[in-house]
Write a structure and sequence with these properties.
Number of helices: 25
Number of strands: 2
Strand order of the largest sheet: 1-2
Radius of gyration: 38 Å
Structural class: mainly alpha
Oligomer: single chain
Distance between the termini: 126 Å
Helix content: over 70%
Shape: elongated
Length: 639
């Protein structure tokens, strides 16, 4: 492990270098750009696998270095190799590699193909730097680079107003959470005196140091923003405006996983009170987002709300069960959610850019590979027994059931599992079963092999990844935390029964329904409208926060133009008035007095000059008169 740490920097550096080179390439150099990006992420994947193998027996290796000095203080950054970072690096590089390959087919006709791979490589590099950072400062730097790359990719088709608006929304909303993260980081530095995670016993995660609840909650604000938790979830569904490979990368391997990973990384700092907040926020988000997904028709938007919901499960797992429970679901979710998004991209590609599931139907026979792989991803997400999501979801429910604070998150988790199976079955019925609803669905075609190959790989991952954390073989839990997983089989049977009931109920409803009207909308129009409009959260924010911000901006503009600008203009006028007064005093008083004085001196000099005309006779007369005057003075004084 100590020898491997020397090469750990290659994992983020390879795609970062590729991004820098691709940024200098011309548009026509498409193959070179894609080759550099795929080659770089392949190198990162190989190095990540090698690093992962060195952590199989546990342990930790760090490599810190000095960044700069100020005064007597040295600011240090570093990399850490431990089980948590190693398995995340393998996941991120592996899934990113498949998404990069998939993008060769999906973005083949895009005129900005070269720039797209530049941004993808930057995105992956930032996430990998974040995973391997041994300093909260380096973590935050990479965290902000992830935000920048997401802005560039969500708004990649910036010529579309909706894409440009979605990119700005994602960037601004996540900055709100990042501000709390930054303040928490400053408070942590003031409390501990270092931002290094591990530093020979003096790091902020060592020595039994526990941060205050305020610091923990401020750091959690960053995770709320990045991972789309309530109330900062609104950016994530709109992020679907970017190309589908971007959606897969954001939702599976990079941006949204960063918030969950942040809490897992700083878990030793978290107080019991802060973990309670994490649990409640996660439980509420899981149910809230799942209920909204029930009424959506955009294929990617349904998956987006599914991601928000599953991220809530991960947060709840961290809060009630610890790092191994939350991270197990993060890793299994990365596999099947990447599969679902890439499958959605294949459907969109095959249906000629159609995204409304109401305009699809009958694709099972027209796109058999996409259907089979998508079905695997759907069953993994729903938690169908033996698929990966089944094991990780039930581990969370089991931990929630044993949570001493409250049983409410457990019941929220059960309800969320029911809703997940319901809306995913609804989506499957609308896309792959029944008759084609439009000409695009009628003439749909299977995607090329470069797109279906990653789907098949990810389907295999979604099917078997969960077996690494089963009660029979709890390898993942032992590897990550040294503890075996606990499974309460009655809870497993209960959640499984709910999932099967939801699948059967949704299949029965939507296999018989017409495409003109949703059966739920017909039965409960008011409730369905509430869900379709996302509980009017965006409208609420527009009516309150956005309007207040706009009003404050207008007030600031008025303050700047009228008040501050008026003061500046008043000072300008006062300065000009004082300048004119000074000029008048200078010209009339000072210059006038000086002119009079000079005229007097000049007149006196002129009068005196008359006696100095060069005539010796006049000089002798003056001497004679002076002598006579002196003589008279002496005689007068002698009397």
């Amino acid at each position: 492990m100590e020898s491997m740490i020397k090469f750990l920097w290659l994992i983020p550096a390879s795609p970062l270098l590729a991004a820098g080179v691709c940024a200098l390439l011309a548009r026509r150099q498409r193959r070179l750009s894609a080759g550099l990006a795929i080659g770089a992420i392949s190198i990162s994947f190989v190095v990540s696998c090698a690093a992962f193998l060195t952590t199989l027996h546990g342990g930790r290796a760090i490599r810190n270095f000095r960044w700069f000095d100020y005064g007597t203080t040295s600011v240090q950054l570093g990399f850490v190799l431990d089980p948590l970072g190693a398995i995340m690096a393998v996941m991120v590089t592996g899934i990113s590699l498949l998404i990069f390959i998939y993008s060769l087919g999906y973005m083949a006709k895009d005129e900005n193909f070269t720039r797209f791979f530049c941004f993808l490589a930057l995105f992956a590099a930032a996430m990998l730097g974040l995973i391997l950072a041994n300093s909260l400062l380096l973590f935050f730097i990479c965290w902000e680079l992830v935000g920048l790359a997401s802005y560039l990719l969500i708004g990649f088709w910036f010529q579309k107003p909706s894409a440009a608006a979605a990119a700005k929304k994602a960037f601004i909303v996540t900055r709100i959470g990042d501000l709390g993260f930054l303040v928490g980081m400053l408070f942590l530095y003031a409390s501990k005196g270092t931002l290094l995670f591990y530093d020979g016993g003096s790091g902020c995660l060592e020595g039994g140091f526990v941060a205050s609840t305020l610091i923990c909650l401020l750091i959690f604000c960053g995770a709320v923003g990045k991972s789309g938790q309530l109330p900062l979830h609104v950016w994530l569904p709109d992020a679907m405006e970017g190309p589908t490979p971007v959606s897969a990368l954001i939702h599976a391997a990079t941006m949204v996983a960063a918030g969950v990973f942040l809490i897992a990384r700083v878990y030793p700092l978290m107080t019991p009170e802060s973990l309670q907040v994490v649990t409640w926020v996660g439980a509420l988000t899981a149910v809230f987002a799942a209920s909204i997904a029930v009424a959506q028709n955009d294929i990617k938007r349904i998956l987006a709300y599914s991601t928000v919901s599953q991220l809530g499960y991960m947060m709840m797992g961290l809060g009630v069960g610890g790092v191994s429970v939350g991270m197990f679901h993060l890793l299994t979710h990365a596999g099947f959610k990447a599969l679902l998004f890439l499958g959605a991209g294949s459907v969109i590609h095959g249906c000629h850019k159609e995204q409304n599931i109401a305009n699809m139907g009958g694709l099972r026979k027209r796109m058999p590979v996409t259907f089979a792989t998508y079905a695997v991803g759907m069953m993994a997400l729903c938690g169908v027994p033996l698929f990966s999501g089944f094991w990780s979801k039930d581990a969370i429910l089991d931990a929630a059931h044993d949570w001493r604070i409250s049983q409410v998150p457990f019941y929220f988790g059960l309800f969320g599992a029911f809703l997940t199976a319901f809306y995913m079955t609804r989506q499957m019925c609308a896309i792959f079963f029944g008759k084609p609803a439009t000409g695009g669905a009628e003439h749909a075609h299977e995607s090329p092999f470069v797109m279906t190959f990653p789907l098949m790989i990810l389907a295999g991952v979604a099917a078997v990844a969960g077996f690494f954390g089963t009660p029979i073989w709890p390898w993942f839990q032992t590897y990550l935390s040294g503890r075996k997983a606990g499974f309460d089989w009655p809870i497993v049977l209960l959640s499984t029964a709910l999932v099967i009931a939801a699948i059967v109920l949704s299949g029965w409803i939507y296999s018989r329904a017409s495409r003109e009207n949703d059966p739920l909308e017909t039965a409960q129009p008011a409730l369905f409208a509430l869900l379709r409009r996302k509980f009017f959260v965006d409208e609420l924010y527009d009516a309150t926060i956005v309007r207040l911000t706009a009003a404050f901006a207008m007030f600031a503009d008025w303050l700047d133009r009228v008040v501050l600008g008026g003061l500046v203009r008043a000072m300008c006028w006062l300065t000009l008035a004082l300048g004119r007064l000074d000029r008048n005093v200078d010209e009339s008083v000072v210059n006038g007095g000086f002119d009079v004085g000079t005229e007097t001196v000049r007149g006196s000099g002129k009068w005196v000059s008359r006696w100095q005309n060069g005539q010796v006779q006049r000089y002798l007369r003056m001497i004679g008169l002076a002598f006579c005057g002196l003589l008279l003075l002496l005689l007068w004084g002698s009397r």
